Amino acid sequence: MTDRLPGFNTLAIHAGAAPDAATGARATPIYQTTSFVFDDVDHAASLFGLQAFGNIYSRIGNPTCSVLEERVAALEGGTAALAVASGHAAEFLTFHTLLQPGDEFIAAKKLYGGSINQFNHAYKNFGWNVVWADSDDPSSFEAAITPKTKAIFVESIANPGGVIVDLQAIAAIAKRHRIPFIVDNTMATPYLIKPFEYGADIIVHSATKFLGGHGNSVGGLIVDGGSFNFAGDDRYPMLSKPRPEYAGMVLGETFGNFGFAIACRVLGLRDLGPALSPFNAFLILNGIETLPLRMQRHSDNTLAVAEHLASHSKVSWVSYPGLRSDRYHNLAKQYCPKGAGAVFTFGLKGGYEAGVKLVSNLKLFSHLANIGDTRSLVIHPASTTHRQLTDEQKTQAGAGPEVVRLSIGLEDTEDLIDDLNQALDAA
Amino acid sequence: MLIELPCPIPYVPFMNHDNYQNEYIRGILNSVKTIALVGASQNPARPSWIVTKYLLERGYDVIPINPGLAGTELLGKPVYASLKDVPVPIDMVEIFRNSEAAGPITDEALALDPLPKVLWMQLSVRNDEAAGKAEAKGLKVVMDRCPKIEFGRLSGEISWQGVNSRMISSKKPVLSGKGFQKLSLNRS
Lengths: 427, 188
Description:
With 427 residues, chain A is an alpha/beta fold. Helices cover 38% and strands 14% of the residues of chain A.
């Protein structure tokens, strides 16, 4: 029998999850334990020395979390993955593995606001310096490269929605300068876009959003594409130099094309500690089993709602790449032909007051600061997440006074449109 | 209807060295017992030491080969200077040297009597000319693969590290008998 690569739907259910070796349990068990008994003293030494595969302590690895890791690695087409406590933790451990104090990385300006804060403020404490570039103009990334540049970071579909990034163009620049290309694939998920196919080297996820998909668990993942050769590259000492923590082992050499994921685990997760709980891993795994079904439904629902809003008399504009008139529609056709995701923004002719009223009037949409739930969600950034900014800053951030962001869920489209209609009528 | 084509060269079974079938690798790892590991190291941080230890723990009789360490013991096993010095029949020769060095090592392996059954070149080591010579003599050849990674992948152990094993199965992994953190190559 040949080893045919299973399809996406099959991997979403089976990858990483064989029946349990000890009990035969078919669903992945929740290994709710801090620690694992060693077979003997020699086995313990082998595990601590990274000479054997196995489990020691759930801060470093856990069998429920490792099913999630292999599942997402398989769906993205990567060599390995690491599950962590949040999307922010995934970014943190990724940069910790790549950057030294004084280094720089280039990031797209259009990102999730939490990432912008993390890069602008928290990372400065580590001496990691962000340099911003414009994802609508890939040449701005090349112009920002200096000898200190250690990574390039973008979102495939950028929050707050409506922006599709030309991954191939930026990947070509990263390759030319031998810089690892990191893509946050949270908004697209591998169902809509597989960034490794376009030249990404590392993928990060907030599994809190569409991977988990039910609004119940915070989690994150780092996926190693296995495409960047760190061995022998002095710019990345975590991977290319003998590590004193492991008796002089060179991780990029010993672990080959999954060395980056191992380094994030044994140097980052082990020492910094943002481990994912096995219970959250279990819930996210359950979510992923229906990822292909949900993402298609999310995208189909979103297109219907966006089309309706685009023709509504109280709406001044809609920014959704699934719409034919959208400036990113051609990129969407190229990168995500199955759909452009579930998150987008639109503008109200009535400005700030209309935005506040709309959010108050909605009865089915939930007013909260998350995306990627089965439930439809709404937020008016100007009165909430971006409240502290000046009007000019709000507009620059895509959060002007008239802007409303939606994350469309899996309800009946008719009910979502009815709810928006009644809320707009009253706004 | 069968069409016979003239065949100017002796028939050599086709082996795609870019993409081995899982059953091919599993068959090799299930059938060999004695493995001569050329390029053994006594440094526990080196991949060759780690692979030696792992294979010993999995029940293989690993025979370390390294002229600089000949006469010493490595992980309790006597080290030999070269393949021809090994006093017992060798099932598999594992080459832990660079691709160029794999050529003369293959020649040494093919001069053994009895011949080994398998020639295995470590991850990042590939020498197609040497592979062709070995295949012409009936050896199975694996190149650019690590036996520890392949064992871990086929058994399911490597999944504990979040590595994409590229295997899915509705059959249980089987504990290897000792403890809970070693799996066998076969599923039930």
